[in-house]
Amino acid sequence: MTSAEILSRDAFLLGIELRLFWLVALLYAISFLIGISYILSSKQTTGKTLTASLWLTAILHTILIIFRTIEGQRPPFQTLYETLSWFAWSANITYLFVHSRWKDIHFPGISVAGIAMGACLYSLLTRSPEIIPLPPALQSPWYEAHVIVAFLAYAVFVVSFAIELTHLIFEKLFKHSAPSFGFPLEGFHRYAHRLVLFGFPLLAFAIFSGAAWANDAWGRYWSWDPKETWSLITWTVYAIYLHSRAIARWRGNAASFLNILGFVCMIMTFLGVNWLAKLLNIPSLHTYAV
Amino acid sequence: MLFKKIYSTFSSLKTSVWILTAMCIFYVLGTIFPQGREIEDYVRAGGKYVLIVKTFSLLQIFTSPLFLILSAILSINLLICIYDRFKTMRLKSRSLPLESIINNPGLIEIGKEENSNIVLERLKDMRFRQIEKGGGYYAFGKGLPYWWLSWIYHLGIVVAIIGFLLTALMAFENEITLYKDKLEKISLYSPDTRLNKYLKKLGINVSKEDKSKEYSLTLKDFKTEYYQSLKFDYPKEKLSRLAIGIGWKPIESAKEGGFSPKMWKTIVELKTPDNKIKEAPLWVNHPFRYKGLTLYQMGFEQKMNMVIGSKIIEIKSMEQFEIPGIKGKFITSPIKTGMVFKKDSTEDNIKPFFTLSYIPEKGAKEKLGEIYLDKPERIKGISVVFKDLKEGSGLSYRVDPGVPLIGISTLLVFLGLFFRCFGYWYRVYIIIKEGRLFTLISTRGLFANKDRVLRNLARLS
Hints:
heterodimer; A: mainly alpha; 2 domains; B: alpha+beta; N-terminal domain of TfIIb; 6-stranded antiparallel beta sheet; 12 helices; elongated
């Protein structure tokens, strides 16, 4: 095959992928809008439509992830274009998995749909979709384990945030009118805590595997690189959150606030740190993820 | 009295939370102020808070006295908590006092007294072991004791802090560039570690070298490998991207994108302090380890000769140089040489070339084009030949006595956290009172299912 033929084939495949990705983003947007109408109507059928829409998006997004993996002949989480898509997909899948235990509770799906839509649009509108082969620094046995576990932790934190937000909104704004949506408020607070408990060791593993990887690549397990430091901040904030649950006076709203702060720190680790490094001209060892 | 107060403050959970919060503030500051830079760089970059930055060592925040004091406070807090929890752990392994169980709001009635034997048997069938038995009172348990797991990962954090301290005091690293057939010596001893500097300040004699830790290195082979990179002209403009996404516009123009790095591989011949000869193959993410020595592949350096008439000038790639007779400076890209792995799955040797750019005394950098080695070129009217490429392998070596402790702490923290969060622990109390049967179930861990146990017991009785 000549270079021109390879390029033409790759352009064709990329065209298909992009259409699919735009469709996925559109479906997340539709799910989000259905969610808004669910808030306004509080009808169970609208809630069920939201969940069904997220299921349909999950199926298409899974096809997109598989397509990209085959296209790139490697796991699809190297560039920010890819990781944003992976982030949205894993958050949605995790939400649907968690949701399968609740059946008639659909409210947290709105936040998940909104976050996934934002991630997809950010990826599509600002990042290059080109498939880049793995540079030397990423060719490590730690690569897949580190990224997969880190994003699983992120996905769990997104869902925990969505649940915590639901809890706060109902408690503060809707003044305990949660029963009309069919769930007890305290149950939500507890569930958000259980999810953090699930994600916390995963984030620890992501940090440890990153340190082990850095030790193999550069001989320095910790460099106080902005991404490393923010991952430690996220971990510490969630550690504070978990400790706060054991302090009687902090168990309620203070704990909810810490959970939401943990989510903000997680977003900083994933995305904000890239902006911060650019803004303040701080060199980062994670430039390939920008 | 004062000691008791300090002890109770430091063993409190609230203190831990406040210390962790303070640590977070330091971490955030460490990502706002560029670490490891000089104050002059900060001023040059337009930094406004010079006095604050200087006073609080914000450009070296993670080695600043304030951060070290805070880390010491955290360590004391952790040590006291570990000691305090250790004392109470034996008590925890026992059951709650009967009175507190009876008065517990979580106590649930599950049936009548005559069914107690069935319930107790069922608990045994469910692999609960009996821990205690009293008059009309039974305690059963199952799973990993969570307080030990929690204790283990807190201990792991203390071990990690000791590891960090060892790294900060005794670790050092250096870089070395090896060229073929040129012997270089490195030592696993450095008089410039923080510990040695402190010892020197205290007037303790620190030796300048240690011959028993010297290694000799010779480069045997160095290879650079590239991918063939084909690029699309993907639009940056958002509406054009949307047009491609919905199929109104195809991805039309495409171009060849040159080469992107695949791997750098080195083979070094190593002479150990006891005169043993070893062959050390290494590449990125695959360091070579031998006893205390670890060699890492970091990059490469390239030198070549620039021949102008009878004049031969040695230049380095990616470094500015002058061509006699031309005002301004020149700079090359990395010289592409070695093997290319093409998109059509074939491999090819690259004919060495680089991109040359001209940097005028005034004005913007100008790209002059691709230059192939050993081929005469006319650059701004002067005939030049670039030849005799030499590639050096950029390696680094590091000695860090903190790493083994960090490894141990990682295992302690991760395994402790993993089993604490993903494991299960149950304590089931059965109370017989006034002809009725009650239970109190407490659980820990994500896989502990209180409702299932309760359903099982309620169904039987």
